[in-house]
Amino acid sequence: MKISAIALLAVFGTAAAGSPELSISVRDGSFDGLDGLDPTVKWENSAKSGDIDLSYGVEAAARPTSDIASLPRSVWGKASTDVSGWGVSARAEVDAQDMSSADIEIDADNAEADLSVKMVAKAGGSGFDVKSVEATKGFDADGARVTVNPRYNIETEATDVVVNYNNGDTDVKLTASVDNQEVTISHQIDGDNRIAPTLSNGGDVSVEWERKLNDDSSLTATLKPNESLDVEWKDADWTANVNMPIDGTNINGANVSIKRDVNF
After folding, report:
1. Which residue would you say has higher pLDDT here, 87 or 25?
2. Is 0.85 surpassed by the pTM of this model?
């Protein structure tokens, strides 16, 4: 007898307050019958234990199968609390098909100091390995919002800093390391149109244009000369993505994916 994740999570949903979310997408842009569909179910819930807020969830494939163990894709849990003015949270996520390790994310945020710290690590049989650390400091300057975000990847020993400036209509983001620098200037032209060119010291250029169609619908196009043209159309619960590789003035085919989120 074949069982789907929808049936299993329907049981969970009746026993807890969380409602499952079904996401159906076309895998690899293939429309060749139902085999091209990749339905995914996400379910989460929350609880409280003293001063600690708990949340947890699971993501599973919703394809009918007789192998129930193959349905879950990931399981996660998160605990949050306040410690001496800091909002601290720890989140762990496990690949349900490989339970030998867990991805850990620890965040600490101090609203009064306008400072946050984040650490990403992996815990498993080899111990607790820190992968990356970063901090973000924010402040207000003449009506604008400025953030400085230094980052350090321990695995690759790569260091960079992200500086962001936002005055409402214009957002400037500078990402800089020893070897690479990139700047994105995003400007809200009017209530419906936004344009965001990106330049790098290596000569790479891209331009993103976003058009708001209505309250629940938008169209975003990103052009990378001699590389690709990406178009994303969002319409309420529907999302369609089209990727078109570009070689000079030639468009070499198109990869299409479509997704719809369903809450029930």
Report:
1. 87
2. no
Find out whether 149 and 139 touch, Cβ atoms under 8 Å: no
Virtual CA dihedral for 58, 61, 65, 70, nearest 10 degrees?
-60
Tokens of 174: 């500078």
Tokens standing for residue 150: 């230094």
Handedness of CA 209, 257, 251, 217 (dihedral sign): negative
Task: Tell me if 163 sits within 8 A of 145, measured CB to CB.
Answer: no
Query: Which pairs count as long-range contacts for 92-100, CB under 8 Å and 24+ apart, including other chains?
Result: 92/123, 96/58, 96/60, 96/72, 97/70, 97/72, 97/73, 100/124, 100/125
pLDDT digits (tens, 9 = 90+) for 155-197: 999 999 999 999 999 999 999 999 999 999 999 999 999 999 9
**Phi and psi torsions of 112, nearest 5°:** -65, -40
